[in-house]
Amino acid sequence: MLAEFGGASPRMLNLALHAASGIVIGIVAAELLPAALDGLAGWWIALAVGAGGVAYVLIETGVEQLQRRKGTDTDRTSMWMIYVAVAVDLTADGLMLGSGTAVSLAFGLTLAAGQVLADMPEGFAAVANLRENGVPRKRRIMLSASFILYCVAAALLAYLLLRGAPDSAKLAALAFAAGLLSVAAVEDMLNEAHEAREDTRGSVLAFVGGLALFILVSAGLETVLGEDLHDPVQTEAVRSGDALSPGG
Q: pTM (2 decimals)?
């Protein structure tokens, strides 16, 4: 809504996307990888992270090929490419949230809080890009409202598939999401930020601020929920009574 009714300068876009990238890196560094490291061998984590990165590259390649096959209506093509890019990003977010919630509800809530923080500047940038491409306001609002479907559907699908799966499969899914989000943050968000405006020291501070903000949110939720969110599998086992007894 800020981008829709308040306008967005290239400088604001640059800062917003740097902050979003910092938050995503925070999610990967402070939550996803530590959780995977607690329960998976290093080579499994490396394989899953690599698979996530490759998946993002393949998706991005498919979007680019789709763009080249579109007609000559440049404005319409740009609109749909922006829409597809955001829909793919939110689908990946949903897969991460569903996987995290399958591990434990507290862990899923933490990931959701961080992703909401990251998606706010991303949404700001998406709406600003749609405005720049001449998409009418009514259509922009309808497109924005439809984005929730991708995230919720992907989250439900991942949760239903993984809730009864072994812990190793859940943690591998988190490592996969870590690889996918890392590439998205570095190659997509930061590139878009650089295209909007040349970086300044403020851009660097926005990135670091986003990273620090997520760490504070994560620590705050851990305090409120009273659980060790960095060991979500053990937390869930304790809650369900499946943890080994001291003599077990």
A: 0.78
